[in-house]
From TrEMBL:
<dbReference type="InterPro" id="IPR036291">
    <property type="entry name" value="NAD(P)-bd_dom_sf"/>
</dbReference>
<dbReference type="Pfam" id="PF08501">
    <property type="entry name" value="Shikimate_dh_N"/>
</dbReference>
<protein>
    <recommendedName>
        <fullName>Shikimate dehydrogenase substrate binding N-terminal domain-containing protein</fullName>
    </recommendedName>
</protein>
<dbReference type="InterPro" id="IPR046346">
    <property type="entry name" value="Aminoacid_DH-like_N_sf"/>
</dbReference>
<dbReference type="InterPro" id="IPR022893">
    <property type="entry name" value="Shikimate_DH_fam"/>
</dbReference>
<feature type="domain" description="Shikimate dehydrogenase substrate binding N-terminal">
    <location>
        <begin position="28"/>
        <end position="107"/>
    </location>
</feature>
<dbReference type="InterPro" id="IPR013708">
    <property type="entry name" value="Shikimate_DH-bd_N"/>
</dbReference>
<dbReference type="GO" id="GO:0019632">
    <property type="term" value="P:shikimate metabolic process"/>
</dbReference>
<dbReference type="GO" id="GO:0009423">
    <property type="term" value="P:chorismate biosynthetic process"/>
</dbReference>
<dbReference type="GO" id="GO:0004764">
    <property type="term" value="F:shikimate 3-dehydrogenase (NADP+) activity"/>
</dbReference>
């Protein structure tokens, strides 16, 4: 997916020949982001292409503050995290197909309408982060995963991004979902039955069902990293253990990276003999996609390597 070329459907470029020397700002908006790695990553990526831009944290859920900040003349774009991915997306001038299909926005960028007026566009680069993190380690995964089941752990916004990524690019036979609440899965299934009707979703209700299902080739974890305690959490974890113990090992991607990238799910997958991709790698690829939209150029691979190395465990 050429996200830069596609972005010009929403307007023309804001940038000029000297824009990289202009002190533009990007922001991360979220409810609890004090330990976010995004400013570090974006700082490295900006410097790698000679841009004197900065990324700042804005710990807020206030719509007015969000609008005031992104519409400032020196704001080039923003990243949006929980719990703002749905509410803030509704405030923008337009949404890309990815954001509409997933039902959540994690990135904004600026384009100009025919009169030169700024338009604020929302998209979702979480799905690109999942895709590109997999393809960096497994360039043949688009072919090798095709026609095989996949699985997503969780029922929130990140789970929707993972379902979109796997369903759109990896051509699974179906996608299993395990989650602490069946009602959240029902919402997801109803949403994607309309948004992506060609993607088959299957809720795993119990461990016995997990044992009977064909082995998934890719698993994407999207849940916070804390020990399961409630009945639904315990059941979902037992289902994960059952799937990981199946005969054919595959690839597990965990989008979670806090408080540490070596999450409980990652360690369980490693112990079971699965290959793993850490959440820090996904985050780095999300930031790269955001930078392509903001800087309007392809990424500097040396800068990407530096960014990944800076947050490696």
């Amino acid at each position: 997916m050429d996200i830069l070329r596609h972005s010009y459907q929403y307007g023309t470029s804001l940038l000029g020949s000297s824009s990289r020397s202009v002190p533009y700002n990007a922001y991360l908006f979220g409810g609890d982001i004090s330990r976010s790695l995004s400013p570090l990553l974006h700082g490295i990526l900006f410097r790698s292409v000679g841009a004197s831009w900065e990324c700042h944290l804005s710990q807020t859920t206030e719509k007015s503050k969000f609008l005031e900040t992104i519409t400032a003349s020196n704001t080039i774009g923003s990243s949006i995290t929980m719990p703002n991915k749905i509410t803030f997306g509704r405030l923008l001038d337009d949404l890309t197909d990815e954001a509409r299909t997933i039902g959540a926005t994690n990135t904004t960028f600026v384009r100009l309408d025919p009169t030169g007026k700024r338009r604020y566009i929302g998209t979702n680069t979480d799905c690109i982060g999942v895709r590109d993190a997999i393809l960096q380690q497994h360039p043949n995964a688009l072919a090798s995963a095709a026609g095989k089941p996949a699985m997503v752990v969780g029922g929130g916004g990140a789970a929707r991004s993972a379902i979109y990524a796997i369903g759109k690019w990896f051509s699974p036979s179906e996608i299993y979902i395990t989650n602490r609440l069946e009602s959240e899965v029902d919402d997801i299934v109803n949403h994607f039955n309309t948004a992506m009707p060609d993607v088959k979703l299957r809720y795993i209700p119990d461990v016995a069902t997990a044992h009977k299902l064909p082995d998934p080739s890719i698993i994407v974890g999207t849940i916070p990293d804390y020990p399961p305690s409630q009945p639904g959490e315990l059941l979902s974890w037992q289902i994960c253990e059952a799937i990981l113990a199946k005969a054919e090992r595959g690839l597990l991607v965990d989008m979670c990276y806090m408080p540490v990238p070596e999450t409980r799910l990652v360690n369980a997958a490693k112990n079971a003999g699965w290959e793993v991709i850490l959440g820090t790698e996904v985050l780095a690829r999300v930031c790269v996609a955001q930078q392509i939209l903001w800087l309007e150029c392809e990424s500097n691979e040396e800068g990407v390597k530096q960014a990944v190395a800076a947050i490696a465990p």
